[in-house]
């Protein structure tokens, strides 16, 4: 989540695919699918002297506030509201972002977490701060964070407050914790710019396996390849790595240097679903899907482990090649290995089968021939050639 180090405004998306919004009554907060609304954008304020904490200000200029008022009598969740800043009650407006895979948890002053509730009314679309007390609600405190622009989206703020929010940090200000999503040294953002700065070294974290790769094969510890089944939904392991089903096109996710997508031969993406592979077991299904909107379920973070790579999901799980008796044999899930015997099940060998080769175009010394209908091409534009290793069709 280091790509939010420069965020000045964010949108928060819950496990239900809904966004945290500030209602027009300037008090209530809830979930809504209208992500394009300005009510879904929250201005980020860093807390002086607390490098792990942030405040979130709504489009109405009021702060996301954790209270000690019960949402419903007899229930554990407490209300989250919009409120004006009141000196001496600073902790009510402060949230500690804690990374959890590709997502974050926002911890309040009392150790509870910002929670997006589901179910029937009055819980539906409500927001509280609480602890997940069952495995079925543990994802309710996880949020996808999307950095957005600031200048045009918060026109209701005064010019003075906008300019002060973009002022440079004082010399010697403390750098944020590695577990915090936000850094205390955030340069200015342009309007409607998606933050893309990643300070980590891609060759250290595993992206060297995918550097310049257009297509790869993934070989599990059983010497079987990740295979897109013909039903265009299942993903399994197969010893035949020369077929098109074992070929995965690599897509770099715009704005990220350490996240990729993998597209199978049927044009569908390798997806970490939240469906259990078997009831009562920890592993979850890995599928081929083509969602209408590409989200973090189709994104994988490569992590180098010697000559192999681990592919981590947004849940902090890893792509796993299972062995044993059916139905585990040849299955693929995402999970965390809990036993020494299964530690190698999340390691994959990467065979690059097609690469991108970029070669600069030869510059012409002859002057261009003027023509009234000519197109204005840039003479320095590089030409891209594709070099393919191996034949699959």
Automatic annotation (TrEMBL):
Q: Which InterPro entries match?
A: Actin-crosslinking (IPR008999), DUF569 (IPR007679)
Any single Pfam family the record assigns to this protein: DUF569
Q: Where is the DUF569 domain?
A: 1-143, 207-348
Which domain of life, per UniProt? Eukaryota
- What PANTHER family is this protein classified in? ACTIN CROSS-LINKING PROTEIN (DUF569)
- The protein in question is named Actin cross-linking
Organism, by scientific name, is: Quillaja saponaria
């Amino acid at each position: 989540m280091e790509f939010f180090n420069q965020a000045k405004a964010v949108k928060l998306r819950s496990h239900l695919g809904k966004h945290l919004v500030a209602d027009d009554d300037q008090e209530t907060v809830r979930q809504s699918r209208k992500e394009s609304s300005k009510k879904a954008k929250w201005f980020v304020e860093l807390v002086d002297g607390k490098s792990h904490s942030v405040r979130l200000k709504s489009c109405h200029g009021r702060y996301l506030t954790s209270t000690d008022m019960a949402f419903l009598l007899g229930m554990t969740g407490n209300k989250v509201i919009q409120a004006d800043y009141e000196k001496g009650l600073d902790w009510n407006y402060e949230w500690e972002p804690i990374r959890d895979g590709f997502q974050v948890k926002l911890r309040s002053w009392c150790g509870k977490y910002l929670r997006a509730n589901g179910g029937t009314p009055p819980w539906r679309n409500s927001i509280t701060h609480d602890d997940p007390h069952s495995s079925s609600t543990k994802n309710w405190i996880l949020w996808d964070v999307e950095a957005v622009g600031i200048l045009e989206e918060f026109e209701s703020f005064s010019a003075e407050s906008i300019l002060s929010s973009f002022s440079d940090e004082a010399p010697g200000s403390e750098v944020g914790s590695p577990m915090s999503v936000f850094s205390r040294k955030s340069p200015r953002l342009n309007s409607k710019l998606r933050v893309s700065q990643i300070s980590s070294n891609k060759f250290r974290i595993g992206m060297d396996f995918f550097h310049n790769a257009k297509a790869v094969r993934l070989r599990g510890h059983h010497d079987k390849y990740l295979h897109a089944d013909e039903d265009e939904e299942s993903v399994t392991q197969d010893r035949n790595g020369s077929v098109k089903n074992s070929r995965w096109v690599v897509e770099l996710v715009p704005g990220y240097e350490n996240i990729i997508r993998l597209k199978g031969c049927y044009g569908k993406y390798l997806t970490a679903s939240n469906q259990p592979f078997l009831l009562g077991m920890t592993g979850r299904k890995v599928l081929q899907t083509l969602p209408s909107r590409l989200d973090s379920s189709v994104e994988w973070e490569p992590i180098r482990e010697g000559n192999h790579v681990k592919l981590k999901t947004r849940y902090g799980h890893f792509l796993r090649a299972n062995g044993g008796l059916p139905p585990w044999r040849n299955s693929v899930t995402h999970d965390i290995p809990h036993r020494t015997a299964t530690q190698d099940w999340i390691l994959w060998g990467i065979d690059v089968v097609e690469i991108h080769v970029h070669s600069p175009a030869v510059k012409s010394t002859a002057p261009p021939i003027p023509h009234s209908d000519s197109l204005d091409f840039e003479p320095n534009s590089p030409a891209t050639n594709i070099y393919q290793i191996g034949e699959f069709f």
